[in-house]
């Protein structure tokens, strides 16, 4: 990747930095949670949601507007896939910064589940240190180096409390809440409470000309939200393509993580990760559907 935006900083807290750059293979069992952010599992869960939101917001604000929500979902699957995340980790050299048990280095850095977790942990840490806007701008420029980041952050409404970054080091400042203003009611008359007018969240300019008409005979297609395992398998069979789903399981038996690959004629077209084999298999099949161009 020729043009990389700078990584959001997560410095300022030694414990946080150590946790982000230390794999679980080197962690001692039974270590108590950090009182500010908990542990890397909490960071991972937060980061996964923040990352998905940032990608969705970027795609939503792309101009010209995408033809359909299905197109946006397809692109979101592409940008949140392991292949994309892995390329970003390599480009930033983040894999080299991760401390791993020597006996497990090769297995960990090539494991889609572990590397996706690592990226999500970093995103979660970046969020609590810098806030959503910084992370949003970073992800938008990862997707498109020429992105207009002013489009990804709408101005806050006047009567809504805007959260600062959720985590501050070394001291946390007490947030201030904006209080709505009320006029004093006059007794003997109807109460006349008034609040400041709300600013619209987003007011796009009106187009100078009406949008072009839709084609009269659009080609039938299956939206990505409707795609499931059966549809992928049926479509592949109709096209004479052999589909296989090699699967791997890691973690304890009571809380496993599954990685499933969807291969078309032996060529990997999608990777799914989930808490069950079924979820991972469905995700891999959807990625393969997009990679094969069957939704267009």
From TrEMBL:
GO terms for molecular function: ribonuclease III activity; RNA binding. Residues 170-187 have a biased composition (Low complexity). The keyword RNA-binding applies. SMART domains: DSRM, RIBOc. Residues 170-219 are annotated as: Disordered. Residues 248-294 form the DRBM domain. Residues 10-131 form the RNase III domain. It comes from the Eukaryota. Pfam families: dsrm. CDD domains: DSRM_RNAse_III_family (cd10845), RIBOc (cd00593). Gene3D superfamilies: 3.30.160.20, Ribonuclease III domain. SUPFAM superfamilies: dsRNA-binding domain-like, RNase III domain-like. Residues 207-218 have a biased composition (Pro residues). GO terms for biological process: RNA processing. Keywords: RNA-binding. Signal peptide: none annotated. InterPro entries: dsRBD_dom, RNase_III_dom, RNase_III_sf. This is DRBM domain-containing protein.
